[in-house]
Amino acid sequence: MRLSTIRKVDFWLGVPLCLVLDFFSLLLSPFLSRRRTIKNILLMELSEAGSLIIGYSAIKRLKTALPEANLYFIIFERHANGLKLLDVIDPEKILTIRDSSMGAFLWDVLRAVWKMRMAGIDSVIDMELFSRASSILTFLSFARNRAGFYAYTNEGLYRGRLIHNYKVAYNPYKHMALNFMALVETFLGDENGVPNLKRHLPETLITPFQLPPSAARRENGAALIRSKYPQLTPQHKIAIINPNAGELPIRAWEIENFAQTAKRILDSGPDRLVVIMGLPDAMNDGLFIERHVKDPRCINLIGVTKSLGDVVDICCVSKLLLTNDSGPAQYASITPAHVVVLFGPETPQLYSPLGANVRAVYSGVSCSPCVTAANHRNTVCTDNQCLKIIPVETVADICLELLAR
Q1: Residue 23's pLDDT band (boundaries 50, 70, 90)?
Q2: Does the N-terminal or the C-terminal CB of the chain have fewer CB atoms within 10 Å?
Q3: Do residues 201 and 317 share a domain?
Q4: Alpha carbon distance 98, 111 (integer Å)
Q5: Are residues 151 and 170 in the same domain?
Q6: How many domains does the chain have?
Q7: Mean pLDDT across the stretch 108-135?
Q8: Cα–Cα distance between 217 and 220 in angstroms, integer?
Q9: Is the dihedral angle over the CA atoms 311, 42, 248, 101 positive or is it negative?
Q10: Residue 159 is assigned to a structural domain of this protein
Q11: In a shared domain, residues 263 and 385
Q12: Same structural domain for residues 314 and 181?
């Protein structure tokens, strides 16, 4: 389903369902009070592939603190491979939901509820930001312990009071890695304050995930590039460009800017290669850059990568990735590649990839960020000046500096 469809379903179906379930939640609350016998924990992050990377430290903290507990995860099917890369959840304990159509979505939701009941889930940690679907699924698990973000007195997206055990205050002034850690620490601490957690969480709690070195990944990444550029050698310095912003085109830097940056990279030395990467629906962007650059060292791999694993493998043999704020930025950050990520409608304060190899470029105009959890990432803006005012010279100079290291 398209993002616009998901928003409509979440509102027109989610709001009345949350309202009805609120009534049942009130009736059942005496029977669903906290119980600290924890055996089977379900984590939930349906729609944000990049958030899995940001949430790694929190998941690892939970696994370390409760080594005897079984960890389950529920996620959209198209993001499941990204979760498997982190190697923190047993693949057999990953429950998937298809969002390819409304029928598939509803069927898989029912199937997931059945599997939760069969697995004896006693605790749920909802990592979604104010999604009504995840709130409903959390309640339908009938878990005794339910942790999730809660609005308290903040106006925002209504999703009922279905997460009533561990209500965690979402903090838009702290990085999402710390927000996810607050979810886990609230759950582990079993405190009764309002909001539940009243402790300082230092940034030192966050340990960015890094893929272990893998010759197989490097070989696959090189093979994918050689499929379009057989002359590839270990001496080439590869810069990946991901010009597409996926389902939120408001987050895209202008394609002409990417093309000019690619040309400047190639002009900086004969050992430079530019690899254009993206999903098949970004093919026109790739063709535009190719036509502008007119250089055989500009290699179009859009549509060639078949999985997040392929994306990661190409990053493993590349010097850097230049991208809009999107999932590939997060997945590149777990590789040795440098990541240059362009922010506009969202802020790096919340969503910048983690690690020393990341360079966030952000103009910080007065109306940014306008795409937030509170508005379902739905903005009225149709002219993203926050990205347009970022000059090619600034971005190209950063890329050239990193390539020269």
Answers
A1: confident
A2: C
A3: no
A4: 11
A5: yes
A6: 2
A7: 92
A8: 5
A9: positive
A10: yes
A11: yes
A12: no
* pLDDT, tens digit (0-9, with 9 covering 90-100), for 90-113: 999 999 999 888 899 999 999 999
Q: How far is CA 289 from CA 79, 295, 323, 352, in A?
A: 28, 10, 14, 26
- The angle at the Cα of 273, spanning 268 to 278, to the nearest 5 degrees, equals 125
Measured distance CA(67)–CA(23) in Å, rounded: 36
Distances, alpha carbon 308 to alpha carbons 50, 138, 260, in Å? 11, 27, 27
- Full domain range(s) for residue 52: 3-205
The helix or strand, by DSSP H or E, that contains position 40, with its residue range, turns out to be: strand 40-44
pTM of the model: 0.91
By CB atoms closer than 10 A (0-12, 13-18, 19+), residue 213 is: exposed
Cα–Cα distances (Å) from 402 to 53, 130, 209, 237, 246, in that order, read 23, 38, 21, 10, 26
Q: Apex CA 318: angle with CA 401 and CA 395, to 5°?
A: 35
Please check whether residue 311 lies inside any domain of the structure: yes
What is the SS3 assignment for 242? strand
Q: Quick one: average pLDDT of 360-388?
A: 89
Q: 275's torsion region: left (phi>0), alpha (psi -120 to 50) or beta?
A: beta
- Specify the length of the chain in residues: 405
The answer for residues whose C-beta is within 8 angstroms of residue 114's C-beta and 6 or more apart is none
Task: Give the closest residue to 159 by CA, choosing from 380, 379, 376.
Answer: 376
Q: What is the mean pLDDT of residues 199-217?
A: 93
Q: 274, 298 in Cβ contact below 8 A?
A: yes
> To 10 degrees, the CA torsion angle through 31, 36, 39, 42?
70
CA 390/CA 336 separation, integer angstroms? 26
- 120 shares a domain with 66: yes
Q: Are residues 11 and 140 in the same domain?
A: yes
CA contacts within 13 A on the Cβ side of 118: 8
Q: Which pLDDT does position 228 carry in this prediction?
A: 95
**Residues 47 and 163 placed together within one structural domain of the fold:** yes
Instruction: Give the per-residue pLDDT at 109.
Output: 92
Instruction: With a cut of 90, say whether residue 176 has pLDDT above it.
Output: yes
Q: Given the DSSP bridges, would you call strands 94-97 and 70-76 parallel, antiparallel or unpaired?
A: parallel
Check pLDDT > 80 for residue 301: yes
Q: Which two tokens stand for residue 137?
A: 């699924």
Q: Look-up: residue for tokens 């999932």?
A: 327
Asked if residue 274 is part of any domain, the answer here is yes
